[in-house]
Amino acid sequence: MKEHVHSGTYTNTLERLVKEMEDTQRLDELQKQLQEDIRQGRGIKSPIRVGDQDSTDDEDGLLEEHREFLKKFSITIDAIPDHHPGEEIFNFLNSGKIFNQYTLDLRDSGFIGQSAVEKLILKSGKTDQIFLTTQGFLTSAYHYVQCPVPVLKWLFRMMSVHTDCIVSMQILSTLMEITIRNDTFSDSPVWPWIPSLSDIAAVFFNMGIDFRFLFPLENLQPDFNEDNLVSKTQMTLGGKGSEDSSKPIFSTLPETNILNVVKFLGLCTSIHPEGYQDHEIILLILMLFKMSLEKQLKQIPLVDFQSLLINLMKNIRDWNTKMPELCLAINELSSHPHNLLWLVQLVPNWTSRGRQLRQCLSLVIISKLLDEKHEDIPNTNNLQISVLLRYLVQMKPSDLLKKMVLKRRAEQPNGTIDDSLHLELEKQAYYLTYILLHLVGEVSCSHSFSSGQRKHFVHLCGALEKHVKCDIREDARLFYRTKVKDLVARIHGKWQEIIQNCRPTQGQLHDFWVPDS
Q1: At a CB cut-off of 8 Å and minimum separation 6, what does 307 contact?
Q2: Residue 94 included in any domain
Q3: What are the b/e assignments for 213-226, b being 16+ CB within 10 Å?
Q4: Does residue 267 belong to any structural domain of this protein?
Q5: Does 499 fall in a domain?
Q6: In a domain, 261, yes or no
Q7: pLDDT at 41 over 50
Q8: Which positions fall inside the Coiled-coil SMC6 And NSE5 INteracting (CANIN) domain (predicted)?
């Protein structure tokens, strides 16, 4: 009996060891597969993806308990991306539809040369015209006399379309030097030439931007349409268009050409502030904002865009009237919350008009994202903070999730939401909260405050902690919750700093005392 017991105990232990060895072997295979996934950039989540086309037979053969294990400990880290998604604004297949560097010929512009240099250029071929331009012949020719408009237009268009980045920059240098010299002729009865709104639209349209992206809002359109723009431009080219418009001139984003055009417009709006009417300035600002959403521009510093925006905002004559209209217009340029946040952050905040536009635009977008009825934009800081307090109460992630669930449930045939869809909606709710909080920060932290506004920030701190911070339950697997809570902490810290700096006077202390409940 004793031997039987010992024998049975040994047998059971051996069976357990064999089972453990088999489990260990399967786990080793799983570990190798996971390491291969990580090496290929797919991470630990790939084995549990449903319907993933990249899944292999080995992944399909995973035991169910392993799938449950991975599902239990997988981490969601990409629910809130660091960068806005952007849009596809440029269509390179349409670039060069009106003109290109091979069809732009100064001899077709109707220009009649007077000086020896002008006659030399007009006798030269297209390639030699560019060579003479970049070697300083034009700069010396117009050192003491005004440069004719056809020459300036030719330079502007060639700069925008030439595929050699160095040549485009050389033309920009020539164009800017001539323009500055033209501006020094104080006895001239006319202003130096600057490109009209149609000239600007034509070069961007020729780069591959659809007309509907140049002027995206139906209620804010120029006095010309796409057909007028193309025909008018071709008339100034002697009736000639691109010799082969089926071949695009650009295969990638013409970053240098875009920035060169923007730099030149920055010079024009600086030396000739009266050059554009308020309505044209609004259209130019909207054009720049829409272009900035291009996906391939996301990693490029748009300092030149911001410099031009500063000049354009400064040149608006009726700012108090146009600023609210501009806020409402920018708000309609995209439907994605992160894109709208990007547009807010593109506005320069180191000028008074820039800060004002940034704050009011943030309030308008917050109202839109919360499905609030539009109301007049408050101008004073106290009113803005009071409106912000009302909006902040509605930014509780769980409440935003409930709204999304109700909306999605109404769209479902059976009116039910499964767990995977509920998790996806939760990610969207926290993503939206993240954007809204950034906009809150733009409204509240973009200018200096007086001691009289201290009580508003005390109330904001309380609302932020009660309605947002306390509603977030952190989870090691759900990193997006931690990301939102971290942003809450940063905003709260900034407000506490403002409260400390806005110390009240002795007579104001009673306004800030709140009795214990």
Answers
A1: 266
A2: yes
A3: bbbbbeeeebebee
A4: yes
A5: no
A6: yes
A7: yes
A8: 4-374
Rg (CA), the chain: 31
CB atoms within 10 A of CB 414: 6
Query: The whole model's pTM is what?
Result: 0.81
Using the predicted structure, report yes or no on whether residue 53 has a pLDDT greater than 50: no
pLDDT tops 90 at residue 242: no
In this structure, what token pair is assigned to residue 469?
Answer: 């911070």
Residue type, 167: V
CA distances from 171 to 134, 167, 176 (A): 6, 6, 8
For the chain, the average pLDDT equals: 82
Going by the DSSP 8-state scheme, the letter that residue 378 receives in this structure is P
CA geometry: angle 21, 22, 28, nearest 5 deg: 85
| Residue 239 or 262, more confident | 262
Overall number of domains in the chain: 1
Q: In which domain, by residue range, is 159 found?
A: 83-237+246-317
Calpha distance 198→432 (Å, rounded): 38
For residues 502 and 487, give the distance between their C-alpha atoms in angstroms, rounded to a whole number: 23
**Pure H helices in 108-163:** 116-123, 126-134, 137-141, 149-161
Dihedral sign from CA coordinates of 112, 114, 115, 116: positive
pLDDT band at 513 (very low <50, low <70, confident <90, very high): very low
Residue 182 in tokens: 């033209």
Q: How many other β-carbons are positioned within 10 Å of the β-carbon of residue 418?
A: 9
Residue 87 phi, psi dihedral angles, 5° rounding: -140, 165
Helices marked H in 445-472: 454-467
The CB-side HSE value for 250 (13 A sphere, CA atoms) comes to 27
| The two three-digit tokens of residue 289, written as one number | 């904002």
Better pLDDT: 479 or 75: 479
Question: For the chain, give me the number of helices (H) and strands (E)?
Answer: 23, 0
Summarize the confidence of residues 430-449 as an average pLDDT: 86
- Residue 75: pLDDT band by 50, 70, 90 thresholds? low
